[in-house]
């Protein structure tokens, strides 16, 4: 019998099988549950952040700035790396397991109030738990990261004050469409009439622009209303420029986040146009880091010395291109790349981003039904090998990520670099290995 004392592991096992489908897109069930749970954010400011890549880091920077400005903040993001509680942060801290279990119990009770029990997916449970937690805590600012698409994502039951689109790329085509125009239109579903939206996609699709005009959503566009200059390593928003040279999150996301903060400050009629004085803001930009996103670990071997390990959840072609560009800014002798990916990703195109680089590849099978076998990854790497130099020592397959990573650690020398990428599951396995060690 499920109740408030039920463990989090048991709750998670339950909500994984509570609906017959893993994904059942639509807003009606979540909207009904929001009413039953009496979730109300009319006194709060809500930011909804959608996009193909960059959502997590954009949310994290917005969160840091709001907290530094003295606001209480709730952030909902997914997926998690080590603990499910990472999905719900309140004032910079993961939700307590007991509090989360209590909310799951409330959701379970509320979905059975009427004669017909509402079936909820795993993601709908998660979204409702976050919304209820933020409502109970009465936080000042609610930041919601869209899970899939936008128009039919469960987060879209909440009308946001600021909508953000970080980027548009090809991912989840089975659900969102097979062109960027179709995907952009789905993501634009988080726009609201009369509420300004921030768009960080450099080449905003016509479908997005037309939909915004159709429903009356004013837009602030990167390259037109705010700017990121890779050459100068700076972003400019509202005629103020900030350096991103030291930023350890994707630099274009800094521009998008600052544009969102600038809009939020305007809505709040705040004394500072970015909620903080410029020096404090620059300090946050310089120091922010997000686990699993351009995340650098220092591995030290007593005999060989120190070798940097970069963890990045890049898992589609656009994020792989960004990561490849970042990698070219590092100085190293050889890069040992540990990769594991899901089979529904465009593996061949994603891995082609690294085709011209001197790599030693450690391809790993991921341990879920969606996880791709190491053999397909190896084949993709071989197909992209323009030098023809790959041999059995430079291209290896492994039954799991940990085994692949341990081999990379064994092979890497002091002037080398280890990169772990391809999926949240891949990065999580290495983080878990380090936590265990």
Automatic annotation (TrEMBL):
Please indicate if the UniProt record lists Acyltransferase as a keyword.
no
Question: What SUPFAM superfamilies does its record include?
Answer: MurD-like peptide ligases, catalytic domain, MurD-like peptide ligases, peptide-binding domain
Give the E.C. number(s). Answer: 6.3.2.12, 6.3.2.17
Q: Which GO terms describe its molecular function?
A: ATP binding; dihydrofolate synthase activity; metal ion binding; tetrahydrofolylpolyglutamate synthase activity
Q: Does the keyword Amino-acid biosynthesis apply?
A: no
* Keywords for this protein: ATP-binding, Folate biosynthesis, Ligase, Magnesium, Metal-binding, Nucleotide-binding
Q: Which residues cross the membrane?
A: none
Q: Which domain of life is it from?
A: Bacteria
Annotated GO biological processes are:
folic acid biosynthetic process
Cofactor(s) it depends on: Mg(2+)
Q: Which reaction does it catalyse?
A: 10-formyltetrahydrofolyl-(gamma-L-Glu)(n) + L-glutamate + ATP = 10-formyltetrahydrofolyl-(gamma-L-Glu)(n+1) + ADP + phosphate + H(+); 7,8-dihydropteroate + L-glutamate + ATP = 7,8-dihydrofolate + ADP + phosphate + H(+); (6S)-5,6,7,8-tetrahydrofolyl-(gamma-L-Glu)(n) + L-glutamate + ATP = (6S)-5,6,7,8-tetrahydrofolyl-(gamma-L-Glu)(n+1) + ADP + phosphate + H(+); (6R)-5,10-methylenetetrahydrofolyl-(gamma-L-Glu)(n) + L-glutamate + ATP = (6R)-5,10-methylenetetrahydrofolyl-(gamma-L-Glu)(n+1) + ADP + phosphate + H(+)
* One Gene Ontology term, aspect cellular component: cytoplasm
Under Gene3D superfamilies, the record lists: Mur ligase, C-terminal domain, Mur-like, catalytic domain
Domain annotation Mur ligase C-terminal: ranges = 305-424
The pathway this protein participates in, as annotated, is: Cofactor biosynthesis; tetrahydrofolylpolyglutamate biosynthesis; Cofactor biosynthesis; tetrahydrofolate biosynthesis; 7,8-dihydrofolate from 2-amino-4-hydroxy-6-hydroxymethyl-7,8-dihydropteridine diphosphate and 4-aminobenzoate: step 2/2
Q: Where is the Mur ligase central domain?
A: 49-262
The entry assigns this protein to a family as follows:
Belongs to the folylpolyglutamate synthase family.
Subunit structure as annotated in this protein's UniProt entry:
Monomer.
- Write out the function statement from the record: Functions in two distinct reactions of the de novo folate biosynthetic pathway. Catalyzes the addition of a glutamate residue to dihydropteroate (7,8-dihydropteroate or H2Pte) to form dihydrofolate (7,8-dihydrofolate monoglutamate or H2Pte-Glu). Also catalyzes successive additions of L-glutamate to tetrahydrofolate or 10-formyltetrahydrofolate or 5,10-methylenetetrahydrofolate, leading to folylpolyglutamate derivatives.
Q: What is this protein called?
A: Dihydrofolate synthase/folylpolyglutamate synthase
Which organism was this protein described from? Brumicola blandensis
């Amino acid at each position: 019998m499920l109740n408030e004392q039920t463990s989090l592991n048991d709750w998670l096992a339950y909500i994984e099988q509570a609906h017959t489908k893993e994904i059942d897109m639509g807003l009606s069930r979540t909207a009904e549950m929001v009413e039953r749970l009496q979730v109300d954010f009319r006194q709060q400011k809500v930011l909804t952040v959608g996009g193909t890549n960059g959502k997590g880091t954009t949310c994290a920077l917005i969160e840091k700035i709001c907290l530094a400005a003295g606001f209480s903040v709730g952030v909902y993001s997914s997926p998690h790396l080590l603990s499910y509680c990472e999905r719900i942060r309140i004032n910079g801290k993961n939700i307590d397991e007991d509090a989360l279990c209590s909310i799951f119990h409330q959701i379970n009770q509320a979905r059975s109030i009427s004669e017909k029990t509402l079936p909820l997916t795993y993601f709908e449970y998660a979204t409702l738990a976050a919304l209820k937690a933020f409502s109970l805590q009465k936080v000042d600012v609610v930041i919601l990261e869209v899970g899939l698409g936008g128009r039919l994502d469960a987060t879209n039951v909440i009308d946001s004050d600021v909508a953000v689109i970080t980027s548009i790329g090809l991912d989840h085509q089975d659900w969102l469409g097979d062109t960027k125009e179709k995907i952009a239109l789905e993501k634009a579903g988080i726009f609201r009439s009369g509420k300004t939206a921030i768009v960080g996609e450099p080449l905003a699709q016509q479908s997005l622009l037309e939909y915004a005009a159709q429903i009356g959503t004013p837009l602030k566009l990167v390259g037109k209303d705010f700017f990121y200059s890779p050459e100068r390593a700076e972003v400019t928003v509202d005629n103020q420029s900030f350096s991103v040279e030291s930023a350890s999150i994707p630099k274009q996301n800094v521009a998008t986040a600052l544009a969102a903060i600038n809009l939020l400050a305007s809505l709040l009629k705040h004394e500072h146009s970015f909620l903080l004085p410029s020096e404090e803001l620059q300090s946050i930009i310089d120091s922010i880091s997000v686990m699993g996103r351009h995340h650098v670990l220092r591995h030290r071997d007593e005999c060989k010395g120190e070798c940097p390990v970069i963890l990045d959840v890049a898992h589609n072609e656009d994020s792989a291109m960004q990561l490849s560009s970042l990698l070219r800014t590092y100085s190293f002798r050889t890069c040992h790349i540990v990769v594991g990916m899901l089979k529904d990703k465009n593996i061949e195109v994603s891995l082609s981003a690294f085709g011209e680089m001197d790599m030693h590849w450690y391809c790993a099978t991921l341990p879920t039904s969606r996880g791709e076998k190491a053999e397909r990854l190896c084949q993709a790497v071989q197909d992209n090998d323009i030098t023809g130099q790959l041999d059995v020592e430079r291209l290896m397959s492994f039954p799991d990520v940990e085994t692949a990573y341990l081999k990379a650690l064994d092979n890497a020398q002091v002037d080398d670099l280890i990169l772990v990428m391809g999926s949240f599951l891949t990065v999580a396995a290495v983080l878990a290995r380090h936590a265990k060690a």
